Give the backbone structure.
Amino acid sequence: MNKTTNSYMSHRMGMSGMGMGMSPCFKIVVFEQEHFQGKCQEFTFECCNIKDCGFDNIRSIRVECGAWVGYDHSDFEGQQFVLERGEYPHWDAYCGNLSYHVEWMWSFRPIYCASYQSSRMMIYERENFLGRNVELCDDYPSLQAMGWCRKEVGSMHVLCGAFVCYEYPGYRGQQYIMECERHSGDYQCWRYWGSHCQTPKIQSIRRIQP
């Protein structure tokens, strides 16, 4: 196996109270082939285009520390995939049950603000934080089962931590990563959820594990 290592040091490490000689608080290893085979590379910071590192694609992933989000296009664009600590031996292990077939990942970045125990967000019935609202601080496999009467969410405000929202109940369909550190936690309408988003439909939400 041809292994190369390229670790990036981020100013975020200083913010998290890390000293010299300590292990990085974010580490991901990506592989060009499924089941952790072929060329691999370690990262502790974001990568905006894996092709710049000599990869054609990413087909398996090992997340050793921290939570990450991957994208199926370069420059953090396109379909999003939440990547929590663990092993992803092939593409459908990180894609989950999406509404379309995709077998590539070209960029990824850490989710610095993930805080499972203290995650809180408000969801609103209409855009621009209008209409009925509910505060969420847990995992919800079905918003309708917990009393949300709609299949859509108009806008969201992430007060603390990070969440992954799904198009369908049971954590299925398109994934949208919502973070308190992006857009100041304000997602005024579905167009802010990601470049791949084409609908305000959200039917399950869970907290991201750091």
